[in-house]
Structures are given as structure tokens and as C-alpha cells.
Amino acid sequence: HPPQKNNTQHLPPSFHPDMKRFFGSSKDKGPPPPSLSEATERVDGRVNKLEDKIKQIDSELRTVRDQIQRTRSPAAQNSLKQKAMRLLKQKKMFESQRDTLMNQAFNMEQANFTMQSMEDTVLTVGAMREANKTMKKQFKSLDIDDVDDLWDDMAEMMEENKMIQDAMGRAFDCPTDLDESELEAELDALGDELLMGEDSEEVPSYMSAVSAPTTSLPSVPLGSQLPAQPASAHADGVSQVLQTF
């Protein structure tokens, strides 16, 4: 019989049967490690628990101290003192653990702050690079000579517009060779004429007060009634009164 071929000669070491028997097969990766923020929150929670334990021990120490002061028996006092010593040792241990965890939390907070600062720096640099590319593209579409020509054209048009406005604002048939002294003398003479006209002006006849005719009416005794007059006689009386005005 021909010798059998060994199929394990060309296998990598990680798949060799002997390696699997000694070291075992590779396992799947576990969950990702927690972030610095999550680790800091977890450590802060442990610090809070230790703080609660320290407060509880302080309360027990106060109770034991009061019991020692009230106890007269030496044996009972020694027992209470031993208990107080144990509580003090636990308190020191918890305080040491708390301080260690607080230092760890502080270090992680510093590392987290540094990492966030680096992320912000990377974002800032990326934004500046994109802005630089955009500015370069925009500057390619601009020419300083074209900008100068545009500015000159606008300045020329503004000057022409000013000239047009000045021309449109000129008055027609206005003499320009007038002497100001002559104008002032004429104005003074015109003022004197106006004052003289005001002094000689009389009140017109139609502005005088019109005196209404006064007619005395006969008195009517109380309790008597006036005789009724026809409507035509009343109308004639009204017209006569109106004619007097």
C-alpha cells in the first residue's frame, strides 16, 4: 500500500490540530471596551458608594462615643473602644479607596478632555482645508484687472449721473448777474410800502357789525290764549322779519 499523505503539513500553525489541543481555538472578540466617559461615570458611582459607607461609619462612631461616655464599667468601655477602633480602620480603608478612585476619575477626565480637544482640532483643520480649497476656486474666477476696470466704470457712471442731476436742477431764465446790495435795498423799500398800506387800510363796510332791529312785543297776560292765525299770515310775518336783515 502507498503511504498516506499527511494533510496537516500545509496548514497554518493556527489551524494545526496539535496547536488547537494545547492552546485552544481562537474565540470571538468580546464587546468593545467602554469609552472614557462611561468608565468615568462608573468610577464616580463607586466613589459615591464609598462616601455613603464613610458617612455610615461616622454615624456609628458618634453612637459608640456616646455609649462610652455613658458607660461606667471598664470592661464595657474596653469592648466599645475595640469596636470604635475597628470602625476607624474601616473608615481609613474606605477613604484610601475613595482617594484612589477619585485620582483615577480625574486622570480619565483629563484624558477625555485631551481626546475631545484633539477631535475638535481635527475637525477645525478639516474645515479650514475645505475653506482653503473653496477660496482658491473663487479666486481663480476673479481678476484684479477686471475688478479695477469695474470700479472705474462705476465711478465714471456715478460722475455722469451727478452731472445729469446738476443739469436737471438748474432754473430757467434766472439772471446770474444780480447785485446783492440792490436786492437788499429793494427788499427794504418793499417792507416800507407794506407798512404804509397796513396803516391806511380801513375796515370795509361789510365787516361792520349789523345791528338787529329790536321790536317790543306786547305782554300777554297769564292764563290767556293767543288767537290762532292762519298759516299764510305766519309765513308773511317770517318773510318780513327776514327782509329787515
Shape: elongated
Topology as H/E string?
Answer: HHHHHH
Through-space gap between termini: 164 Å
What percent of residues are in strands?
Answer: under 5%
Strand count? 0
Mean pLDDT: 75
Keywords:
mainly alpha; 6 helices
Short description:
The chain is mainly alpha-helical and 245 residues long. It has 6 helices and no strands.
Description of the structure:
Helix 2 (36-70) packs antiparallel against helix 3. The protein is mostly helical and 245 residues long. The relative contact order is 0.04. Helices cover 69% and strands 0% of the residues. The protein has helices at residues 17-23, 36-70, 74-140, 144-168, 180-200, 231-243. The model has no long low-confidence stretch (mean pLDDT 75). The protein starts with 16 loop residues before the first helix and ends with a helix.
Task: Give the SSE map.
Elements lengths: L16 H7 L12 H35 L3 H67 L3 H25 L11 H21 L30 H13 L2
Helix pairs in contact: 2-3
